[in-house]
Amino acid sequence: MHSSLFLAPHKLSIRPWVVHDKSTIVIKIREKDAAIVVDGQHSETVHKNDEIRFYKDQEQSLFVLGEQSFFEKVQMKLR
């Protein structure tokens, strides 16, 4: 059985976390190996006693804008 921690899922029943932009979130793997999955695309195995750190990078990310907003896409999927 796997335990899951969702930081910013795209599921309506689980809410994303909102943290200060200077925060660092540290997750320590305590009991056994686990998998970390980023954007449902990239997977990496992490091992017992590993630490995963999340923080704001100094570099900005560029995103492609589509024809529909996120909320329009959600509305279409819920119909």
Descriptive notes:
The strands form two sheets. A two-stranded antiparallel sheet has the order 1-4. A two-stranded antiparallel sheet has the order 2-3. Strand 2 and strand 3 form a beta hairpin. The model has no long low-confidence stretch (mean pLDDT 80). The chain is of the alpha+beta class and 79 residues long. It is extended, with a radius of gyration of 16 Å.
Cα(first) to Cα(last) distance is 33 Å
Oligomer: single chain
Structural class: alpha+beta
Strand order of the largest sheet: 1-4
Largest sheet: 2 strands, antiparallel
Please give the number of β-strands.
4
| H/E element sequence | EEEEH
Percentage of residues assigned to helices = 10-25%
Number of helices: 1
State which percent range the strand residues make up.
25-35%
Task: Give a short summary of the structure.
The protein is α+β, with helices and mostly antiparallel strands and 79 residues long.
What are the key terms here?
single chain; about 80 residues; alpha+beta; two-stranded antiparallel sheet; two-stranded antiparallel ribbon; 1 helix; 4 strands; about 10% helix
Secondary structure elements and their pairing?
Layout: E1 24-28, E2 34-38, E3 42-46, E4 51-55, H1 70-78
Antiparallel strand pairs: 1-4, 2-3
